[in-house]
Design goal:
The protein has about 90 residues and is an alpha+beta fold. It has two helices and three strands, in the order E-H-H-E-E. A three-stranded antiparallel sheet has the order 1-3-2, covered by helices on one side.
């Protein structure tokens, strides 16, 4: 299944990933490490791609049980960063 940070979904597990992709790290009380690092905004797309893939692997393991990240892709569309994730749900 593929999820990105601009397309909402009704599947509970995929919605958890959607929320994670749209959360800025440091903004959730008691879970300050949840979300995407806001300092990535000024980095080159290749750097963003590798860092986000690594971070999403860790965050999904920690916060979304039963989900495995297969791949993550970042690209620019209409001046917006799109983070697209292919995941597998193991329920």
């Amino acid at each position: 299944m593929i999820v990105n940070n601009y397309t909402k979904t009704t599947h509970p597990k995929l919605h958890e990933l959607y929320v994670l992709l749209n959360t800025e790290r440091g903004t959730v009380p008691l879970k300050r490490d949840l979300g995407i690092d806001p300092n990535l905004v000024d980095k080159p797309i290749t750097t963003i791609q590798s860092v986000i893939t690594y971070e999403l692997q860790n965050q999904i393991k920690k916060y979304i049980k039963g989900m495995e990240l297969k791949s993550a892709n970042c690209y620019i569309e209409n001046s917006k960063l799109i983070i697209e994730c292919e995941v597998e749900i193991n329920e």
